[in-house]
Amino acid sequence: MREYDWKSLVDTLAKASVAYLESLPTRPVQPSVAADPIRALVGGAMPMDGEDPAAMITALAADLDPFVTAHASGRYFGFVIGGLHPAAFGAEVLTALWDQNAGLHAVAPGAAVVEETAARWVVDLLGLPARASVGFVTGGQMATFTCLAAARNHVLKGSGWDVERDGLQGAPLVQVIGKTERHGTVPRALRFLGLGAGQMVEVASDDEARMSIPALRAALEAANGPTIVCVEAGNVNTGSFDRFRDVAAAVDEHRLRGNPTWVHVDGAVGLWAATVDDRLTDGIDLMDSWSTDAHKLLNVAYDSGIAICRHPDAHHASMTTRGAYLVQGTGEVRDQLDWNPEHSRRARGLGVYAVLRSLGVVGVRDLVTRSHTLAQRFATALSASGSAEIVNEVVFNQVLVRWLHPDGDGDALAERIMARVSESGVAYFSPTTWAGNRLMRISVSDWATDESDVDRAIEALLAAASQG
Known about the structure:
By secondary structure, this protein is α/β, with parallel strands linked by helices. The protein is built from 15 helices and eleven strands. It has helices spanning 6-23, 36-42, 53-64, 86-98, 109-126, 140-157, 163-166, 185-192, 213-222, 244-256, 278-281, 312-319, 349-384, 410-424, 451-466; strands spanning 133-137, 175-179, 201-203, 227-232, 261-266, 289-293, 305-309, 388-390, 398-403, 430-434, 437-443.
């Protein structure tokens, strides 16, 4: 085996890691997004002669440091981006160190059993059916894709069609029903699956982005044959949750009319609320599949998504593959490639396992509860300031803010306030358009965020607002 001075490389990485992590409390949250200064440092032609890895990593860390967004600073409130739990960081180091091809148990047994354990913990923690199957994927997009692939298999099989063998040509039409305020990953998954984004039947959403149950019932009454319904736990704008028990009742009636039906929950933002709040997630266990991001509220490192299915046979049939050259399990062991779209893959489940083991059940519940409490802290202070109006009911970790301007042009004011705060380096907030207005969206998603971070961000926001 060729030798290398691994200690030199590890020492280099350790120094860069500690320097970055210790800079987070004071580091500007959002760097400039201009590309040309970055290209000047890392672009150009590929070098003819290579560099020593340790020297190259030292230079790369120095070159890119000014352009790294401090997602884990406790003051990044844009989009819905989680921070980095210390256990997740440690797991990432081990994942890279061991570099396991974690598609088969036979190839990487340790990674396979860790993922098997993490899957069981996730299902138990969320209160989902004990028999549910789990796939660890790259994020919410592929989790939704995986769940809807299983849904497609299940409803077509119920109509006498084997889509895995025969494809979609000549298959019964799969009718997909979703709401107007769905996340973009759902229609994108429908495109990937050949079901067509434009084929979705849209039903109305209320002023909190919850699916209208009367509109759902009407859409189901008009549908015949295999049907997929897509609902949501934690809307990306309002944070709202669909009424799962009412959805289940409407779908059961549809099934009794002879229509094979599957209900999928897009829980990228809010599925973890099932650990603490029965009010928000009542009836969620009655659905057929659930997708979520572990790299959002759970603060596992990017990239980490989870697909969960009530019907393991449909999940397995839509994902599995066989090969004479593979050494595959016979049922006593879990091969990861049976539950996700990838073949060769990193030991992605290790990060989920590490964070869950580090936090424990109590820690996860505290993390979820604290995210909601801090979101309410934002809403209370900004509303009381007289400079802003909170547009949504803050039921989870999302806050929608309309900034008030004497001439009524709150849209432009919102953009100015967000830009000023970003330029100050104190915090970062992202915009959205809701009900025709340009608003500021606050997402509390970092385990490291505390009251002082929120108060510091509020102070910066109000100072920016005072400038008009």
